[in-house]
Amino acid sequence: SASAPASASASAAVATAAADAAAAARWGRSIVQPNRSYAALGLGQAMVDLAARVDDKFINELGLADVRGGRKVIDAAFKSDVLAKLDDYAGVEVSAGGSLSNTLVALSRLGEANDLLQFANGEHVDV
């Protein structure tokens, strides 16, 4: 998991995470070990989560008051708007994310052997 410095902007943090994922994909780094038995193998996109402390004004300006504590699927334009507005906030944290990654972490904490293959910057992937 990667972390952006407190002074880094949200868009810079995303760019760094995307560059890391693209480099791993470009060099074909494989994490799957051939002669190992797995309880689960996840295949999915390289995803990152951004976390930042924001005020109610920020939430309301984005029209997200009704989603507080929940989840919302957004499009690329909305994502760009949020990232631009997050640039004014310090302490944006970047970490590995996505439900697949989180599920595999939970399985490993339960003692199950698992691994994850992630894809970055492909025909159907936009990091």
UniProtKB/TrEMBL annotation:
Stored Gene3D superfamilies: 3.30.1110.10, 3.40.1190.20
Top-level division of the source organism's lineage: Eukaryota
Matching InterPro entries: Ribokinase-like (IPR029056)
Name of this chain's protein: Adenosine kinase
